[in-house]
């Protein structure tokens, strides 16, 4: 089975990257996860990115903050899709990371999700893999259906109990 590589520059990125891992687990997609700094250990990063294809990785999810070079460097070295997750930073709120990731030079694309968009990165990786995996496509359709049903259930509950009670229950 095709695999997704999840890489982050720091363990402080783990809560967001875990969202990607969680959705991949729910969808039955195999992944590997690691922490590598493109700036602090470029030799290790280079070897990691160059080895992904032979490990069966078909998509990389790379999360990075501030200068956010990790996704772009992955895209420069790994020949298949890379999804960048810009991390929210205390300095500029993640806009710096977002700009860094979306401003890739021609020929080195990085698909980019929202700031701290770990869940969407996992879903996008699964959708890429589902183009050649009909079973995964069916699991994605079921996942989307469950999201729809969740919203419908919440709307029905709001209609039944009113917004004051709904808010009170949410704040418990």
Structure notes:
The chain is globular and about 60 Å long. The protein is built from six helices and five strands; from the N terminus they run βαβαβαβαβαα. It has helices spanning 14-26, 42-51, 69-77, 95-102, 118-130, 134-170, and strands at residues 3-8, 30-35, 57-64, 82-86, 111-112. With 172 residues, it is an alpha/beta fold. α5 (118-130) packs antiparallel against α6 (134-170). Helices cover 52% and strands 16% of the residues. It starts with a strand and ends with a helix. The model has no long low-confidence stretch (mean pLDDT 95). It has a five-stranded parallel sheet with strand order 2-1-3-4-5, sandwiched between helices.
What are the defining features of this structure?
five-stranded parallel beta sheet; 6 helices
Report helical residue fraction.
40-55%
Overall pLDDT metric: 95
How many strand elements? 5
Low-confidence residue ranges: none
The succession of helices and strands, N to C, reads EHEHEHEHEHH
Instruction: Give, in spatial order, the strands making up the sheet with the most strands.
Output: 2-1-3-4-5
Rg on CA atoms, Å? 18 Å
Secondary structure category: alpha/beta
Q: Report on the biggest sheet.
A: 5 strands, parallel
Instruction: State the distance separating the first and last CA atoms.
Output: 42 Å
Helical run tally: 6
Strand content: 15-25%
What sort of overall outline do the alpha carbons produce when their principal axes are compared?
Answer: globular
Would you spell out the secondary-structure blueprint of this structure?
Blueprint: E1 3-8, H1 14-26, E2 30-35, H2 42-51, E3 57-64, H3 69-77, E4 82-86, H4 95-102, E5 111-112, H5 118-130, H6 134-170
Parallel strand pairs: 1-2, 1-3, 3-4, 4-5
Helix pairs in contact: 1-5, 5-6
């Amino acid at each position: 089975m095709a695999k997704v590589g999840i890489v982050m520059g720091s363990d402080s990125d783990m809560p967001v990257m875990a969202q990607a891992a969680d959705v991949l687990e729910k969808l039955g997609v195999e992944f590997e996860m690691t922490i590598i700094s493109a700036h602090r250990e470029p030799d290790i990063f280079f070897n990691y990115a160059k080895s992904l294809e032979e490990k069966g990785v078909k998509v990389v999810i790379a999360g990075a903050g501030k200068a956010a070079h990790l996704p772009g460097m992955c895209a420069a070295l790994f020949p298949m899709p890379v999804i960048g997750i810009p991390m929210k930073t205390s300095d500029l709120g993640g806009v710096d990371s977002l700009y860094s990731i979306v401003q890739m030079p021609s020929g080195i694309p990085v698909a980019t999700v929202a700031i701290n968009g770990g869940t969407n990165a996992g879903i996008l990786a699964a959708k890429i893999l589902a183009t050649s995996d009909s079973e995964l496509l069916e699991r994605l359709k079921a996942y989307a259906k469950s999201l729809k049903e969740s919203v419908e259930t919440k709307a029905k509950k709001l209609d039944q109990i009113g917004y004051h009670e709904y808010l009170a229950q949410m704040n418990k």
